[in-house]
Amino acid sequence: MTRRGSYAKGLAKREEILTTALELVARNGYRRTTVRELANAVGLSQAGLMHHFGSKEELFTEILRRRDEADRAEFLGDPETTDLPDAYVRLVRHNAGVPGLVRLYNRVSAEAVEPEHPSHEYFGERYRALRADTAEAIRRLQAEGRMPAAADPDKLAVLVTALLDGLQTAWLYDGGTDMAEHVAHFWELVRGE
């Protein structure tokens, strides 16, 4: 019984760490959130914190995974029922309010292109799932007559993913790019409005 209780406590502590880390990185930014600060915030030593994750890279990957889960639940939902263009506009508007998480995402995703990086598999799976969900939602919109039938859903899904990531990078450099406005304009172009 002790082992089962310890496992549950470990999972609860891991959840607390990820929730706290998400808040700290969103508020303070990636570069200004240290492992020490995070450990203190959850009542652990640095070694105790890292016990729950294999490395700092793994910790940051799990923070991003948690962010994705929260964003999916709040903005994207079910690809069979979500108004995809509106969902992406709301998502990028939200991202403009959490620059620390956007910086973390950009930094880790760039580093993770190397196959040996601990986040490589996570990002590969993330992109495949995002493209598949986006393509499925586009197919549904086409069936409903709300998206041109001539648009290739799979190619459009790749373009949407590239647009979202590219806009975030541009926004981090100049801060004046209204990501939501650009995403809304993109969908207007695609729909021929």
- Helix-strand sequence: HHHHHHHHH
Secondary structural class: mainly alpha
Helix content: over 70%
N- and C-termini, Cα separation? 63 Å
For the record, the CATH architecture stands as: Orthogonal Bundle
Per DSSP, what share of the residues sits in E-state strands of 2 or more residues?
Answer: under 5%
Q: CATH homologous superfamily name? A: Tetracycline Repressor, domain 2
Tell me the radius of gyration: 19 Å
Shape: elongated
Q: From the 3D structure, determine the CATH topology.
A: Tetracycline Repressor, domain 2
Largest beta-sheet details: none
Task: Please specify the SSE layout and strand pairing.
Elements: H1 2-28, H2 35-41, H3 46-51, H4 56-76, H5 84-95, H6 99-111, H7 120-143, H8 153-174, H9 179-191
Helix pairs in contact: 1-4, 1-6, 4-6, 5-9, 6-8, 7-8
